[in-house]
Structure formats: structure tokens, C-alpha cells
Amino acid sequence: MFKVSSLAVIVAALLPASAFAQSIEGVVKNSFGEPIAGAKVKLEGSSIEAIVDTSGRFVFEGLSPGVNELHITAAGFAHLHQDIEVPSSGTKNISFMLKNSPIEVVDIVSTPLHLSSMESALPVSVLSGEALRREQSGTIGETLNSLVGVHSSFHAKVASTPIIRGLSGPRVLITQNGLDVSDASRIGPDHAVASEASTATRIEVLRGPATLFYGSGAIGGVVNVVDNRVPTDSETRGEWLVQTSTVDDQKLASFNLTTGTDNFAFYADGFVRDSDDYEIPVEAESHEDDHDDHDDHDEHEEHGGNYTVENSSEESYGFTFGGSYLFDDGFVGLSVEKLDRQYGIPGHSHGEEGHEGEDHDDEDHEEEHHDEEHSEENVFADLKQTRVQLLSEFDLQNSFINQIKLRAGLTDYEHAEIEEGQAGTVFENQTQEFRIDALHQPFQEWRGGLSLHYKHSESSAVGEEAFTPPSDTSMLALALMEERHFGDVLLQLGGRIERVTLEANDVLLSNIELHAEGEHEDEHDDEHEGDHDEHDDDHDDEHGGESFAFNENYTPISLSAGAVWSFAPEYNVGISVSRSERAPSAAELFSFGPHIGTGTYEVGALFELHEEDDETHIELSNMTIELETSNNIDLTFRKTEGDVGFIFNVFYNSIDNYLYQQDSGLVVHVEAHDHGESDEEEHSDEEHSDEEHSDDEDSHEEGSELPLFVFNQQDVVLNGFEAQIAWQVNSAFKTEVFADFVRARLKDGGNLPKTSPMRFGTKLSYENTQLSAHLNITRYQSQEHTEEYESSTDGYTMLDLNVSYDIPAYNMAVYFKGNNLTDTEARVHTSYLKNLAPRPGRNLSLGIKGYF
After folding, report:
1. What letter does residue 749 receive in the DSSP assignment?
2. Which of the 8 DSSP states describes residue 278?
3. Given a cut of 60, is residue 334 above it in pLDDT?
4. 124-351+377-851 CATH choice from 2.40.50.140, 3.40.140.10, 2.40.170.20, 2.40.50.840
5. Secondary structure letter of residue 170 according to DSSP
6. Whole-angstrom distance, CA of residue 19 vs CA of residue 398
């Protein structure tokens, strides 16, 4: 796409060729006067950029006279922004000096405004390059868990999603190259994110409201997985990786390749991952203990031996093919991705959990029988997704609009929960998304543009545990984003208006029996008196109900203003103020049924608990569901250059009409279902002996009591801080300390459930030409700020080590990773399975990676 010579990069200009006569030549050096080969020089407000050659030089030709802003970046250095006056004739020679920065500065690539960790008003983080490979895990949540301000839901390692500043689910949008991944991960924590870190080039995280760029679903932040599946150049390059791990006997292999000709670029990637149930340092506790008002963690500290989290294995693979047509003023490309993942859902079973009382002829028979029972009872998720993306950029040669960026996606997602070899519940989602960004020429020194965004999703869940009805959600939005430098101050402004339509034709209000925990057993015998047919009639009456249609329109509006003041050399302060609105999701409104993956019975905000004559039942709510409104302020203080750098963030987020699940203190009895035979087979013989009837009755009584969680709207406050200090001791050694904290509470008193505890730690790094070593020590404090029916969680300390040795002659590296080296018991407070599935024990990984 760009013509590169040994001396310079010459790029096409934006205006008609008749206006061109000027050029800029420059040299980029460090503070010792040495050239910085490979530095990137970009003309702000355009796609014109150059790569600095080995002598440190670059050239821009064909520029129009006037003031132009250059943005110069290089790995290990602070970014440089500088206004350049292009003369009316001739060439201007300029020297630029970059100063080193111990904190890596990487730009966000998917937004019209300039965002980076050291320069933007909005706090952002980027995990890329070797740092991404060090931290990559089987889930996006665990991959990002090391970033300041980002935690993980950790659903037993199989389906961890990111939590940003205490917010997750429908408030944190996960995208692939700027487009929604369109999976079911925001419905429940047991649903995996349909995106893969092993083939990504970077993962971008915007902390705080990012609704201007991505919509109201990003009221809490955005995670954007970036890859090169639609290539923007035809340079031949690639990487490959193979790895094995001990804690779950995991095998991982991945690769990506980009190549092409002058005008055509091609891309391919793929991965395969296989793992067994993972080991834990202590015996797992019972799932029901998660709803007690106390902890029993200490009783397992004395246990020895090997324990595993049952049904936490995984088999997954994926591949992508993409291609682009490159031309002087842009590119247009298409990619097709296929993802297939099967993973266990711990705690999600319908049979009896214990078999100790059963008598068997010998131990071999007992083991064989247990394995058979285990195989039949376990529930697995079978995730399949096909994703097509169209990406393009066009540089236009006119006087106002200078660049158009197009993104379009088509996603077909299916998530089946396999019970006893059959699909018990199937979640499906088909999404079409289109986005166009039109960036204008600098106008009165303002840079920015308009964004038009459309998305339509059709979601459904079919099966005995389908707790949400089929629904359609449509969104159409228009956004304006602008920024301008006023001397040492960068001002960023933006606004967005959306039209969200949410409709469902079959919302169910069921008749369910509610009671306090333990009451159901006393009444159970009376409930099943009589013959089998009478029991069936009672069952139908109990679980009958009514259905109704829902169709509602919402108009969320988001406004944002931010400023960054470079008040002294190497220092700046930033402030970001925003008001963001979010429409409720289908799951938050319509849920009504058992969500076995989380061990709860969920009821949406359209319904409410009503007490009458000492009995509690559920009925339609007469309350209006309001837009969730976030008023957020961020303050940032940064040192951007030198041997010591730091970032301090303080935030305050007041959210009105916050939708969250509240434990009612009541339980619902959920009957066990036999998926092994059809109804026809089950009732084929109408004459049953007394013994058979007894067996049937006992089987029907099997099931579980699930705590009732109801979606409510309350006003809440989340406030906290993030701190990061890095010291480059010398050219090889660097040390870093960090901390983050969020306090989440109801304005009327009380705490929000499942809030991340305070965390702090240090990172020690050594890097030379071939050897690199990174030691991370992270302390998670105990969490005592809990909801009424939520148990507290003890603190723990994690010790991780990563060592890599490069073999330049073969363009390869051998690496070793050790996680949780002290084999510590670590229960994640934000996890629904914290008492069933702690973090893995000591894990040793060995791998080889290569580049070409």
C-alpha cells in the first residue's frame, strides 16, 4: 500500500496534484543523537505515514502549504506531537528527538480520536507484541487480568470474561477489529467469548465509558481484539507457536501469515487447543456454599494430594482466511473466520453428585460405574461461530472529507449445552453490523469526523433451560467526535445519539412456587401423593403461565468532554467528563428461568416480587424501565518521559437506574430432566408396578433448589483508583509497581455483589538481546464489602515467572512460563463458582515460537 525505499517513504497526498509543490524531510534520533530506525511518522488527520530508515531519515512529498501536525512513535519511546509549518516553496529539513519511556505507549487504532495510555483524556491500555504472548490464555478475561483496572470473572477457566472497574456483562463491549463479537458471553458468565487471543496482534482496552465510539453497550468500557485478518499491506511475515502446560495437560498450536503482491494481500491464521480438567491445590467446596453467609476456606488448607475441577476440559480450533485489494488511496478487504469450541461447564449437572453409598462388587466395577455416571451427568458447551468481516479505507481527494473508513460484519453464532449426548438448550445469535466513519480535513485546526453505526441482532434460546425468549434488537446511531490542540492543551469533544428497538413476541410469566431454603422438603411428600398421572397434572398446573409481546424504543444519548494539559516537560494531567445512557438488554428484561451455569433462577426487570397473605409470588411490574445513566469523571496525572514514568487515575462513576441481579433470599425448586429418553419412550407403558412407580417418583424428585435472583434498578456509585509506576533501572533492568481498587455501593446503602477486591503488585523485568525474564508478584486482598446473601472471600498472593530465550539464527525463541508457583489456593470473588472452582494450582508451561 505504501512504497518503501531505503531512504524514505513517499506517500500520496489528499488534495489534487496541481496543488502540490512542497515536501518535508526529517531525521528521528534519541537523546544520545542515535537514529531510531523503524520509527513511524504520521501526518495527523490523514493516512499518510512513513517508516524511518536505518539512518533515521524520512520524507513527505507533495504537501500543501500551511501548518501540519506530525505524530512520531517508536517502541520504548514517548510519542512526539509537533506542528510543522510547510513552506510555500522548497523543502524543509527538521530534526526530531524522542525520549525514552519506561511505560509502553501504544495508540488505539479503532477510534477517530487520538487515544493512548500517555496522551489521551480517556484511560486506555494496550496489550501487544511480546507482552500479549506472555499473558495470553485460553480466555479473553484471563489474558487481560494482568492489566491495571481489569479483572476476570473466572468461570472455572473455561469462560472468563473481563471486568472493567467493577463493571461487566452488557456494560463491557467486546469487539473484533471494532465490530461486536456478537456472541452470548454478555448473557451469562458460563458463556465463553467467541474471540481468540493466540492469533491476535493486540488487544485494546478502554476503561470507563466508551459509548461515543462503540455505542451504549460500552457504558463501562471496551475490549477490542485486533488482528490482521483483513491485511492492509502485502509484506510477507508471520509467526507460529506451540505450547504445552502441566496443570491441565494443555496442548496449544497457532500461526498467522500475511503475504501478497503489489495490489493483492492475503492472510491466514489458525489455532488448536486441547486441555483436560485442571488441577487445584485444595479440595473444591460445594457449590451451594456460595450463598452462605460465611466462608470455610481455611478447612482445606491442610489438605494435600492432587485435586481437579471436574468437567473443566476444553477442545477448540479456529481458522481465518482473508484478502485485500490495495490501491494508492486505500484498500478493501474481506475475511471469513470459523470458530469451534467445546468446553465443560463445572457445576452444571442434573444427576446425583455423590455415589459413596452405592455397593459394588469390586473397586474396578465401582470406578467404571463412576466414570460412566460422570460422563452421563456432565454438561458441555458446544460453541460454533462463523464470522465474515468487510473492512476498507479510502483517502478522498477533495477539500473537506479526506478519509472514509468502512466496517461491516455478519456473524452466525450457536451455543449448545450438551446434556447426556443431546442438546438440552441451544443459544443462537445472528448479527449484522455496519459502520462508516467519515473523517474531515483539519477545519479551524479541529480534527475528527462523523460516524454512522447500525447493528441488528436476532437472539434465541431453545430448551428446558432457556431462561430468555427469542428477541430482536436493532440500533441506529450517529456520533460526532472532534479534537484540537490549543498550545499545550489537547481538547477532545464528542456526542452520540442512538435509536434502540427491542422486541420479543413470547415473553413468559411462569407460575412458580417460592419458599425459603429448606421449606420445600417438608412439603414435598404431600405434593407427590397420589398416582403418577395426578403428579403430572399438578406439575402442569404449577409451571403453567402466560406469555405476552414486548416492543419498546429507547433513545440513549451520550456526551463527552476531555482535556489533556502538558503543563511541564515530561508531565501532563488529563480530565474526562461524560454522561452516557444505556438501553436495557433482552436478558435483563425478559429472563425467567433456571440459569444452571451460574446456579441461579433469574427473573428479569419486567417482573417483580409481590407479597400477599404471607405468600410471595411473581407478577408483572408496573414500574417503567428507565435508561441506565452514567455520570463519570476521570482524573489522570502522568509522567511520560525519562527513566521513571507513572500513571495515576482516579475515577468517580455515578449510575442512575443501574440494572443488577439481587439475591431475593428465596429459592425455586427445579426438577431434574431426563434427556436420555424421549417422552414417548418414557410413557410407553401405562402399567407400572409399585416398585417402578417408586423409582419414577424418586427420579422425579431429583433436582435442585436454585436461589432466586431478580433484576432491579437502583442508583449506585463506583469509585476507585489505578496506579502504575515504572522505573527503567538501566538498559536491561526495569521494575514496575501497580495497584487498582474499586468501591461499588448502592446510594441508599448496601454493596453491589461480586465486586473485585483491591489488588497491588510488582513486576521485575530483565531483557537483553537474547534473554528476557519477567517475575510478577500480585496480591489480591480479601473482599468484605458484600451483598446481604453473598459470602466474603479471603485474599491470596500469586507468583508468576516468564523466561524467553531468542535463537536469532533460526528466528525462533524458546520460553517457559510458571503460574501460581507457590501453589496457592485462590478463589476469585467475582466468580459464580468461587467455592467450586478456584484458580488452577501450580502450572508450568513450555513453548517454542517463531517469526518469519
Report:
1. S
2. P
3. yes
4. 2.40.170.20
5. G
6. 11
